[in-house]
# Entry
Amino acid sequence: MTSAFDLSASFKAYDVRGVVGETITPQIVKAVGAAFVDVLDLAGQTVLVGGDMRPSSPEFIKDFAAGATMRGADVLLLDLISTDELYYACGALNAAGATFTASHNPAQYNGIKMAKAGAVPISSETGLYEIQAKAEQYLNEGSIPAVAKPGQISVRDILRDYSEYLRSLVDLTAIRPLKVVVDAGNGMAGLTTPAVLGDTLLAGLPLEIVDLYFELDGSFPNHPANPLEPANLVDLQAAVVEHGADLGLAFDGDADRCFVIDEKGDPVSPSAITALVARREIARAKAAGETTPVIIHNLITSRAVPELVEADGGRAVRTRVGHSFIKALMAEEGAVFGGEHSAHYYFRDFYNADTGMLAAMHVLAALGEQTLPLSDLAREYEPYFASGEINSELSDVPAAVARVRAEFDRDGVTVDTLDGLTFTADDGQWWFNLRASNTEPFLRLNAEAEDLPTMVRVRDRVLELVRN
# Structure
């Protein structure tokens, strides 16, 4: 009698993520590979499989491939890839795929991000939990039945194709020379940056790359590959100033997110990057004949984003936080671009998927096509004062929300419930959003105002109520 397998600890809303040897093991991965083929009906088709630089990724790639071929799919091994390389491959080759990564999580973690053919995302609402259930069935039965004709395994390197495709979307050949410090955090950007922005595979660009932590090392010996945490940007900020660079770029572990530092060493908010890229994509879409290009933004990006989109003749569509919502809405609306506060950037020309590298290329182009420094260029896109995301760990989240609502749900304030609660002053001076985490006992606050004293006053009062 085998003990019952329950994979709910590692199957999340958007992907699989767990501790290696505990909640994600070779046995589990093999079952997930088989379930992936069964649930998506991929027998007789090609499945793409790759992974990042984590020590467990190569073995997990083989295990997933073994499970998939047992159920009749052919497997094309992409081996070492960034997550946006998987999305590119799923789109360009019109095949479903999976990559092994735990993104910015610590070294003891690994996981699986999956996509259908065309880079259509797989989430809890679009098949992920069915894959979990089927994998649990195989694990609990103790075996995976092999089909009469198992699939074959072959290998393909897509780095050059991926790099050429990105370069076809943003032309950097004629920009002014720029010095760029790139912090790969020992993650996959250490492989993709030289290929896309350097001269290891393609002709050189007017870019001098100063590399930080390009060595692929899933133990993350220098700092966690999570640029959302300010402490992990310190080395990059210092290097930008030290080298007199024009800007700095920081990627997370699987290189699907990119954060930007200006020439003074100050972070440029992801909302500002969203607005900057949106302006470029609106102009390009209009030049191609679109009348009102659509831009997606989540509800906690700066108010400057929809204001700029509308001013430039686009249509801004607001959505809740989460990449599966953004990708679905991108497809539904035919949107040209989408941006999140977490530095995920989505492009119609990239199969509605997110790619940190393409966003970085737009920033390089915008900076290199004019003479102002990035700090001046970014100021236009950051007219308001934001708190950033502030987490409060609470034992009773609903009670905290009730206290805030009792004070702020009043005349002169509009409240909406798209994702958590958003309170907006009718005179436009401030807004804030409170969202409960789906996975942790956290309440997340984002606030913004027309001036710094107002933002501080609103932020501090909300926190006082939340943490009372």
User: Anything to note?
Assistant: The two ends are 51 Å apart (CA to CA). Residues 385-466 form a domain with the TATA-Binding Protein fold (CATH 3.30.310.50). The first strand starts at residue 16 and ends at 19. The chain has a mean pLDDT of 96.
